[in-house]
Amino acid sequence: MKSDFTAEQLKAILESVHDAVYIGAKNGMSTCNQQFLDLLGCKEISTLSGGIEELNRKINSRLASTGKRISQENEPFVRALKGTKVVEELVITNLKTGKDMFVRCAASPISLNNELIGAVAVYTDITEKKLAEKRLKDAIKEVETVNKELQAFTYAVSHDLKSPLSSIYGLAALLLKSDESQISDKDKYMINLIMQSSEKLGKLINQMLQLAKISKIEFNYTSVNLSNIAHMVLDNYTFEHKTKPEVEIEENMTAYGDEALLHSVVQNLLTNAIKYSSKRPNPKIKMGVKEGKEKKIFYVEDNGVGFDPDRIDDLFKPFKRLHQNSEFAGSGIGLSTVKRIIERHGGHVWADGKLGKGATFYFSLPDSQQMAHLKDREPYILSEEQKDKVSA
């Protein structure tokens, strides 16, 4: 079968290549495709007449890594003419627009009958890729700056705010212990309000500090029995209402993660369920596990006051509360802490609920084998279809 191409056919093949291509020998360029002319901003090949050195001077060819002008002996096409395959990232100037462009130049020698007769260079425009990399680096740098500022803020919160707050509480307590004949009942009431507010603010500061630490804490992964943690939380909980809830905990629920942080998750979800079902005549709470399509789905369910589904986006945001403080006391930090812990484990958390009809909070966690593949990757997110299956 005849496989030789005519000069016209070879030209057509060259023009069909998506990237910019030029072919030449030691004395200069032999041919190129239209894409190469467009890349350099030329109308015709005669504009590029002259040797390789002259061409590089015209387009101001520089190394992308350093920004320095590329020397004649290190130019990819020249090296290819000496028999070396070269891939190099360059910066060139478009002759028409005067704008710099990032290009990837892959140059290879051309041999015929074991004789080196020239070289071919393929230029790929990578300007958008390099600009995207720069934007990413700038964004990372900005995030690092913000993190440093947050660390400074955390330090200020933990030292500059907690110290005077402790003084306010302590001085108020001393006033109550002073000569009571000089303090009216109204004064005592106000001093008690100062102490209660100081104590509440102190707890809020501690919760904020805990939330900030989760982002940088190093996890100690192990097999964790969530059932045991749930029983421990209930045993240590002080029930403030006469009617204790009926609590059902599924036994032998195990997960893989940091035990201390998962304890915080279970504690937050269970105590929330107790609080928001406390005004029901027969409060009921259940913690269990369902087998999802790819992993276990844990849940905490209650028959409490529930929440407005239209405000579900605010549910896991810091300081966003779906109920007035006069109804149920709280800081609005607990569910944000749950979300951050679960997502740092590579899992996902969500909720279902309706006003007056209770709520169910779900969270998924990778097992030990999945965790090995999830490190340094995005948190696992359930599809809507998967959520429907496990919530049914």
Strand content: 15-25%
Q: Give the termini separation.
A: 65 Å
Mean pLDDT: 79
What is the CATH level 1 assignment of the largest domain?
A: Alpha Beta
* Backbone shape: elongated
The ordered H/E elements are HEEHHEHEEEHHEHEEHEEHEEHH
Any idea of the CATH topology of the largest domain? Heat Shock Protein 90
**Total number of distinct structural domains:** 3
Radius of gyration, whole Å: 34 Å
- Find the structural class using helix and strand composition: alpha+beta
Largest sheet: 6 strands, antiparallel
Number of helices: 11
How many E-type strands?
Answer: 13
Q: What are its keywords?
A:
392 residues, alpha+beta, Beta-Lactamase, Heat Shock Protein 90, 3 domains, six-stranded antiparallel β-sheet, five-stranded mixed β-sheet, 22% strand, disordered C terminus
